[in-house]
Amino acid sequence: MPLFQYKAFQASGGVAEGQIEAGGRLEAFRQMEEKGLKPISLSEKAAPKGGVAGGAAAPGASASQAPGLGFKFKSKKVSPRMLENFTRLLSSLLAAGVPLSRSLVILCKEASNPIAQAKWKAVYDSVVDGVTLADSMATLPETFPRVYVAMVSAGETGGFLDLVLAQIADFQLRERDLRGKVVVLDFWATWCGPCQQPMADLQKIRDGYPNWGDKVAVVPLSIDDTIGEVRQHVDKRGWTNTFNVWAGDGGWNSATAKAFRITAVPTTYIIDAKGKIVMAGHPVGLPIAKAVDDLLKE
Question: Where is average pLDDT lowest: 23-32, 47-56, 58-67, 138-147?
Fold first, then answer.
């Protein structure tokens, strides 16, 4: 299993460094959260010669980017990993009470890549001039996609920017995991009565299909107005067996909902491993499990 080196803020405000053994970066972040740590940085330790760190099998080449998912956070110049690290560190710094301008200074100093450093510096310069973080990021569309900016704007307006950034970082990390997988994408909302039973059913859909393994991703995507509403709703019901995502600010008019031309919820899409939408409709009348199983047999 891979071994990760981390640096993180402790609840006391101090900085801790250490190592975590985990199946992947997302699991490592989860372990850190359980320990009450706010991540600053996380990197997988290099494998010793002749083997892989933690004794895990060497990973194969990653699958090609699935083109059908309109909610990707893809950057043309700053790599997805750099953007994820920036997002997660900014979330941790803000959650620890570090002012935004000071947080951006730290991020500039932490950046080892000159391109990323220049982007973070441009955001900092704009913010200290009195521009909001979202508007500052919007001037760099090649680095910060529209969905990203929309979610940051919602976080600033609602006063939960650190939570939104953590959500974005988790999504960026998980988005890479979606490549080459069959995806069940379900648009829903907490206020939508007909959405509740299909959402509950998705929590146990894997039970009868152990062959799905990590080849299938079940992603409920909420179009609620705020991320707080979604978190409270799913936590109360224990809906944690799926990767729950918020579409961002705007509800029906969010960039993600528009990309998929959502006019009603619930609406479920089944997307094959190449990113092609093969089936869509109301989840109650959709043979989701059979469709996924058939795709895996192809």
Answer: 58-67
CATH 3.40.50.970 given to domain 80-175: no
CA atoms of 150 and 167, how far apart (whole Å): 13
Express the helix, strand and coil content of the chain in percent, nearest 5 each. Answer: 45, 15, 35
pTM of the model: 0.54
Burial 45-54 (b: 16+ CB within 10 A, else e): eeeeeeebee
Residue 191 and residue 179 in contact, taking contact as beta carbons nearer than 8 Å = no
Q: Using H for helix, E for strand and C for coil, what is the string for 272-289?
A: CCCCCEEEEECHHHCCHH
Task: Say how many C-beta atoms besides its own lie within 10 A of residue 124's C-beta.
Answer: 19
Closest C-alpha among 79, 250, 59, 246 to residue 170: 246
More confident residue, 236 or 33: 236
Encode pLDDT of 74-91 as tens digits.
444 898 889 988 999 899
Do the first three CATH levels of 80-175 and 180-297 match, i.e. the same topology? no
Contact 257, 247 (CB under 8 A): yes
Which CATH architecture is the domain 180-297 placed in?
A: 3-Layer(aba) Sandwich (3.40)
Please provide residue 16's backbone torsions phi and psi, each rounded to the nearest 5 degrees. Answer: -115, 150
Cα distances from 183 to residues 86, 135, 227, 238, 295, in angstroms, run: 27, 32, 22, 21, 10
